[in-house]
Write a structure and sequence with these properties.
seven-stranded mixed sheet, alpha/beta, 10 helices, elongated, two-stranded antiparallel ribbon, 9 strands
C-alpha cells in the first residue's frame, strides 16, 4: 500500500451530541426573517424532510448550500453573514468533534512511513467546511487532499464517487490504495469490489471477507507494523 483514504465521521472523529434540529433553530433565530412561529417554520421544514432524508438511501448527495438556498428563498435572510459563514455556524451548533484515541499516533506513523493520506467523506457540508473542522481538531496537516461528497454530486457507496478519486490517483495501481471507514455498506463494499484494501472500524480484530476489521487505532497500528 502507498495511499490510504479515510472517512471522517465515526472513523477518525466522533460527532458527539449530534442534533440537526439545533442547526434548524439557529436558522430560524438568526438567519431568516419571518413572522411565523417556530412550530410553523418546523412544519414547513418537515414537509420536505422525507425527500431530504432519501439521500441516505441513494447515491445522490444534497449539499448544504442547496438546502440553505431553498430556505432563504422561502424566507428572506436577515443576517449579513455569507453562506459560508452560515454553514460554519450551523455545523458548530449540531455536534462536537472529538478525535478518537490513537488516531494521531497512527497518522504520525503513516506519515513517517511515507504513505500518502487523503479524505473522502459523506457529508452534505462543503469540503471547505470539512477542512476547517479537521484543522480545528489538529488533523488537516496529515492529508494531501480532502473531498466531501457535498461538493461532488454523489455520496458513498456510489462507485462514481470512488472512481472519481481513483482517476485523481491514476498514477497508482488500485492495489496500492486502501480505504478506512466505519460503515460496511458505505466504506467497504464498493472500494473492495474496485480492488482496494479496506479497513473497517468495528468491534474485533480480524480479516473478514476481503477486509480487515479493527476495534481501535492501537490495534490497527500494530497491524500496519506487521503487515503494512
Amino acid at each position: 500500500m502507498k495511499v490510504i483514504i479515510f472517512d471522517i465521521g465515526g472513523t477518525l472523529i466522533a460527532n458527539n451530541n449530534f442534533d440537526f434540529t439545533r442547526g434548524i433553530k439557529y436558522l430560524y433565530d438568526e438567519v431568516i426573517d419571518t413572522k411565523e412561529s417556530y412550530e410553523e417554520f418546523m412544519n414547513y421544514i418537515n414537509s420536505f424532510y422525507e425527500v431530504f432524508q432519501k439521500r441516505i438511501d441513494s447515491d445522490i448527495e444534497i449539499n448544504f448550500y442547496s438546502y440553505l438556498n431553498f430556505i432563504t428563498f422561502s424566507y428572506p435572510k436577515k443576517t449579513p453573514l455569507t453562506d459560508e459563514e452560515i454553514e460554519k455556524c450551523f455545523v458548530s451548533k449540531i455536534f462536537d468533534s472529538i478525535v478518537f484515541d490513537g488516531v494521531t499516533e497512527f497518522l504520525d506513523y503513516l506519515i513517517d512511513q511515507n504513505y500518502e493520506l487523503y479524505v473522502l467523506s459523506n457529508t452534505m457540508f462543503s469540503t471547505k467546511e470539512i477542512k476547517y473542522e479537521l484543522e480545528r481538531v489538529g488533523l488537516l496537516k496529515y492529508f494531501k487532499e480532502v473531498v466531501a461528497s457535498g461538493d461532488h454530486l454523489f455520496r458513498k457507496p456510489s462507485k462514481h464517487l470512488f472512481n472519481m478519486y481513483l482517476k485523481r490517483l491514476e498514477k497508482y495501481n488500485v492495489e496500492d490504495i486502501a480505504y478506512v471507514g466505519n460503515e460496511y455498506k458505505n466504506d467497504i463494499v464498493t472500494p473492495r469490489d474496485l480492488g482496494m484494501k479496506c479497513f473497517l472500524k468495528g468491534n474485533c480484530n480480524q480479516d473478514i471477507d476481503g477486509y480487515h476489521e479493527f476495534d481501535n487505532y492501537q490495534s490497527l497500528l500494530a497491524w500496519f507494523k506487521n503487515n503494512g
